[in-house]
Amino acid sequence: MTRTRPVARLRPLGLDEVAITGGFWGHRQHVNATATLAHIEGWLEREGWLGNFDLAAAGRLPEGRRGREFSDSEVYKLLEAMAWEIGRAGDPGLDDRFRAIVARVAAAQEPDGYLGTVFGRPGQAPRWSALEWGHELYCLGHLFQAAAARATTRPDADDGLLGAARRAADLVCEVFGPDGRAAVCGHAEIEPAMVALARVTGERRYLDQAALFVDRRGHGLLPDIEFGRAYYQDDVPVREATVLRGHAVRAGYLSAGAVDVAVERGDDELLAALARQWENTVARRTYLTGGQGSHHQDEAFGQDWALPPDRAYSETCAGVGSIMFSWRLLLATGRPQHADLVERTLFNVVATSPSEAGTAFFYTNTLHQRVPGTPARDDEVSPRAASSLRAPWFAVSCCPPNVARTLAGLAGYVATADDDGVQLHLYAPATVRTTLPDGRRVAFDVETGYPRSGTVAVRVRDGAADPWTLTLRVPAWAEGARLRVLPADGPPTEEDVEPGTATVRRAFADGDVVELHLPVTPRFTAADPRIDAVRGCLAVERGPEVLCLESVDLAAATGGRLDDVVDVGVDPTVPPREVDGAVVVRLRPAVAPDGSWPYGPPPGRDGTGDGVDVPLVAYHDWAERGPSTMRVWMPVVRG
Amino acid sequence: MTRTRPVARLRPLGLDEVAITGGFWGHRQHVNATATLAHIEGWLEREGWLGNFDLAAAGRLPEGRRGREFSDSEVYKLLEAMAWEIGRAGDPGLDDRFRAIVARVAAAQEPDGYLGTVFGRPGQAPRWSALEWGHELYCLGHLFQAAAARATTRPDADDGLLGAARRAADLVCEVFGPDGRAAVCGHAEIEPAMVALARVTGERRYLDQAALFVDRRGHGLLPDIEFGRAYYQDDVPVREATVLRGHAVRAGYLSAGAVDVAVERGDDELLAALARQWENTVARRTYLTGGQGSHHQDEAFGQDWALPPDRAYSETCAGVGSIMFSWRLLLATGRPQHADLVERTLFNVVATSPSEAGTAFFYTNTLHQRVPGTPARDDEVSPRAASSLRAPWFAVSCCPPNVARTLAGLAGYVATADDDGVQLHLYAPATVRTTLPDGRRVAFDVETGYPRSGTVAVRVRDGAADPWTLTLRVPAWAEGARLRVLPADGPPTEEDVEPGTATVRRAFADGDVVELHLPVTPRFTAADPRIDAVRGCLAVERGPEVLCLESVDLAAATGGRLDDVVDVGVDPTVPPREVDGAVVVRLRPAVAPDGSWPYGPPPGRDGTGDGVDVPLVAYHDWAERGPSTMRVWMPVVRG
């Protein structure tokens, strides 16, 4: 593909170059592969969302069609997840299942390339007639991303998916190209997807089409709706916006696609606009967990500083969208803060959604549960955000396959390369094997118990005659980090490293070890006072993990005397500390006026009684022990 | 009407017995009469909601019908407002307009009594086929309340409104009676309305029908919806519920009707259940302003303690519904806390909605405006909650006529009577003339500059041979109140009175004066610490009024140095005080970390720089000076 002037600083590595071999994320990938994918496939069959393609192929639609207008996309996201998983682990049984689904999808494709089960047939609305809510291009976007993932991990597969995607993409270019309808989809996704397809096929016009969609948005081509055009980012052109707004998933997907376009076209102005939007969004509209979107009503960003923990929507899919955006900015700019947010969001949003078993999910991710939820039934479709407990499936079930595709392809986020070396962004037991543009071979293993341990060891597996540069991300929270270099045949050296990145450039020999020591002592965290909703509170973090207080632990620690997190606050004079492997804080009953009207003269004190030590749990592990109340931000009380 | 055993402690007084003669509320009533009523009538014509009745009468519906499914109700609410206003001021021109609208409405009534423009015609859904969202009985309820208001203030009017209401009510009894459809309306309103109609007509079966509707609710007769059956209070039977929940307007209207039913039927169990719900709702789910409903998504109550000021929905109509509920509990129980909430809600929700000119309205009433809003255009219909500025009309325009009917009939909330005297609940310049059941004549004037002044003088105008009891409400905030009795012909006496009620029983002589002195010094108010969203904040109140900080005043006081209320906090060591008639607080710039990530180690201090004195304004007066940011709850900062 002809590029004007690609501006990306870093090159992503493929699943043939990086593998996660264990640890926190290795375990998550294993659960995803062995439980989640089959779980999703089963529900897609059960709910008829896969069957819709069979009905389409048989010419029987619209009668009998099931699911919402975007249900096709869940099938495509499952295909993408399977494609990454096949690339990761190469399971032939999974490959058979993948091909079987592709066959059913492809059978529904129409001669002109159109693919979709909702529009265009007698008895259905015409194609492209409801761009604001129809999700028609959105669904095709997910088809294209599945095809791109497959083409990346199995370039020689003859399953027909890439061909189907290309035919559909050609149709999109024909209908919506420069001489076609000047329109965009209400839900961004076609934008990054067409760039992905352009990259695997070399088709320049897919990129141009993506650029057209990006440039068109923000000019009011979509109708005004109750939530305003900001809901689908059609209020301000992408290159003029200063912050993300509106529906958080849409905002993330659009921004990711726009970075792709900027990078491929060497559009520095567009890239700078997106970087500015990212900065402002992260500084003012992002939860401690990395979660984004504080409105239930429209699943949208709130205004600056409006980040209520209890009504946090923090949709799982918005976390995925945020990672897509941040990752692309990281590739484009090399700035480690983008990787910081990727890591934070992975640990505290993406890892929070699925249950330990991988068969139930949070659609939204509240930071404060006020009322113990009702357990979702294993065999029932849940509303999106009704319960504090994870549910197996939702009427709108975008999160399960979105989590699955992210986990299956996660090794792709571990490391990147540039002309002179390799950059490690996520810390997990891993193998990295790649070749730099000039032919230098880079091979090392990562050995770590991160995030439980703060020590990350990079063990070089293949000496190179020429030096290369190993770059290690030092997270922003890691004040006091140290870097040790332990050559296979020489004395070790050690130095302090500042948050940002640490680099070691040398002619690495087989057996050389570089060790990064990150301080993962638990710490109190406060919020910018402009975030009104958590004023006077502290959270506790440990490494990249946000912790939380669950009522089940409060009840256990107080012998049942206190069983609701609303009743206590945290003693700020006793730092959080580890006791028998658990992070513990000192809590104390909060003074609560016992009145019929909750407002009155300022009280003299806020805490009462003796403190009690209560263990916290990692936020991603909450709600695994039945209904509970929970809070990430604990009010400060003094004795 | 036969009553089993009415349990009401207090008797409401009619507009022929109480009149507001000036002051804060007298001015509001004047604006309502001279500007608001015509404004509403004009918009009802312009938007075609009145014209819908003409189309119905001409047999031309459904073509050309305009407005939402509940637009009929706005016409009825205007009629109710006009009926009260005619009763209040007796304007004959208004009576002509009233009759003209009644004629258009009545012309649309069908032979069997059905009245409505949305259902039942060819091309429309069948009658009563969409009870969950159709608002069919809700609309009729407002018709009945208009008819009841008219029958109360003009019992001899021959305009046909009461007859039309009775025919429709008879149809409702036939369709939904004991042998009819066991159903309820998704939006409560028919319940209090049928009791009101029963009271003016003496028709027992209207009361029985209201009781049936109340008893049926909470048994899942309405379908489950995304928001759950709690949205329309169909989740728990009224007599089993412990707190208000779901859509706040529906909850208020239903509760009001249920109190009516309980009182008329002597149903102590039901009354106790409602009193309990009121207590819990006021203690845990009510804003400082009296506003109720913290969710934008479903216009609903949040969970206990979930009262974010910035996402406060606090719908104007929910304030009206809350007043309806509280007022009925006051009548039933005589407890002054119900009148306290009525007054609080009147001053801080109902009075906040309309502009000074009475021609623009807040639909919702946020307690914290983060971003200056866009002025609404005088000639444009606004979405419900999009702007921080009042708008002339909304797509859903329930608030203008709801405010209008409340203000027009407001004298009815000033005082009540029982067997031995009169109780004053609201303080305004007023005349009270009534006769006790045994024939004792009570006549007095109220002279006061309340709420600006805390002195309320009751001047007896008609001596009575026999003693009677004057009861004065002492608001809960009025610690240190004093009561003086100044007989026309004797020495004055004076005593401390506690919040609750103060009574004077004597054989009053013409010219006797009873003076209540309420301390209206401005005061700091803190919130129960379980209300997380305003932790570490103080509000300022003065008498019954909640005050707020507007950016326009901050900018003026700092010479433009600070122009956003997000930048400052309040010095808690300097009490609010009055300077040149304005309440002033000491503000200080808040320390705001200047970083790209808004979370980090706890800072050492929260305030910086010198304090500056800034005037506050009454919350009901905010947003009268153009776009601004605003907050009721100010963060505490120390220097």
From TrEMBL, chains A, B:
Species for this entry: Pseudonocardia humida
Entry keywords, A to Z: Hydrolase
UniProt-recorded Gene Ontology molecular function terms: hydrolase activity
InterPro entries membership: 6-hairpin_glycosidase_sf, Beta-AFase-like, Beta-AFase-like_GH127_C, Beta-AFase-like_GH127_cat, Beta-AFase-like_GH127_middle
Top-level taxon: Bacteria
Protein's name in the database: Glycoside hydrolase family 127 protein
Chain ranges of the Non-reducing end beta-L-arabinofuranosidase-like GH127 C-terminal domain: 522-635
SUPFAM superfamilies xref list: Six-hairpin glycosidases
Domain annotation Non-reducing end beta-L-arabinofuranosidase-like GH127 middle: ranges: 422-519
A Pfam family hit: Glyco_hydro127M
Ranges of residues in domain Non-reducing end beta-L-arabinofuranosidase-like GH127 catalytic: 18-410
